[in-house]
């Protein structure tokens, strides 16, 4: 049995079982096969991983079929003849098969000319040394690590380096620039200076990469433990200027009459890191990234007073829509959530002042609805003062706001609330068809309840409506 041989990477029993099946199938077909890339890297790092990449010298699709067959008759294989790749899903695992290849690139595209190659050719075309390590699945050296570029040393030193000349590597496939920065952020590794210089040199070439792939890598940076690592590298490499220039507009501090404002770029990065400590939700992290995005566009210096950014919340909301569309992010609920949080991000702060009325609290609960918890997380993350005493005081203020909200919510149930008299009812009562008057009556009822002028009950709303209707010369039809 092959699987009794020791392996150079720690694998679970199930993984060993499947690797043995692959090794046996490859032996049958007389194809040298190897486990390669991310899986090997992640196993050595002790990270969870569910996708295996198998490279064989020969026909990868044939190997995939043979493996699927040995796993049972119901295991499906999806394959792409043009690319010579195949995928087998088995339990939790996604296993990709491909024939070893050699690639040569042309300047104008990231689609290389591909020819069959050896394992060494295939390792040469890998993006980073830590991603080029392979584990042999051949009988003669089963389980041993084949690491021609010392990826193991780089893993230990926590560095990202390209196997071949960096400028060529990034120019050949500019997506690798995003990947380098994404791995630096995900794994908290350092990109070696020569490679980083090559990214700076080739940044413009990112334009040949599709937005979907850029967005994919960007989101992985956003989901990394400390997104500021990747975001700052995107800025310093020159990539941010190309993919999300509005972020670069946040950089820097302007002085007038001896007064400066904070550097909104680094403030934003801190806010993203702060929220990342409290949530893994990608969209809350995006809200943190974009919360001050309209500050440059709304910035004014008011003599004798200082810097203001009036309306950056509302304009920021509009910018969210544009940025989501450019990034090809989902334009439905997720976009609406981010937009709403950006629009509302100043509201809880205004509730920390003294003498806040219940009606102000009710209004925020009504406007934020179920997103109130996300909004509070954003506001707490937005505290980036270096002064510990201040941070503590601000956080305590938010605690008071939370407590007040809880009280008001318990008595009034405003979250997800709809006024007790609906538009349909108004139309029916006064024999109206849809139009301005119906809208105005409805709004008046809602405002009266939110302001605490009348209680949140059907009877009170109905009486209020009848009174209000008089000013429109309306009387009930029945
Ligand atoms: P993750 O799965 O976390 O995204 P990964 O390194 O496994 O990371 P995949 O996209 O799954 O990334 O790719 C698998 C392997 O294919 C990589 O480890 C690397 O060896 C190689 N690879 C992927 N993309 C590229 C690329 N653009 N250029 C060169 N090699 C690449
Ligand atoms: Mg992978």
Automatic annotation (TrEMBL):
PROSITE patterns, sorted: HD
MF terms (GO), sorted A to Z: ATP binding; metal ion binding; nucleotidyltransferase activity; RNA binding
Lipid metabolism among keywords: no
Pfam families attached to this UniProt entry: HD, PolyA_pol, PolyA_pol_RNAbd
The keyword DNA damage appears for this protein: no
Record keywords: ATP-binding, Magnesium, Metal-binding, Nucleotide-binding, Nucleotidyltransferase, RNA repair, RNA-binding, Transferase, tRNA processing
InterPro entries linked: HD/PDEase_dom, HD_domain, HDIG_dom, NT_sf, PolA_pol_head_dom, PolyA_RNA-bd, tRNA_CCA-adding_enzyme
Cofactor entry: Mg(2+)
Matches recorded under SUPFAM superfamilies: Nucleotidyltransferase, Poly A polymerase C-terminal region-like
Domain HD: 264-375
Gene Ontology BP terms: RNA repair; tRNA processing
Stored PANTHER family: MULTIFUNCTIONAL CCA PROTEIN (PTHR47545)
UniProt record similarity statement: Belongs to the tRNA nucleotidyltransferase/poly(A) polymerase family.
Designated name of the protein: Putative nucleotidyltransferase with HDIG domain
Native source organism of the sequence: Chitinophaga dinghuensis
Top-level taxonomy: Bacteria, Pseudomonadati, Bacteroidota, Chitinophagia, Chitinophagales
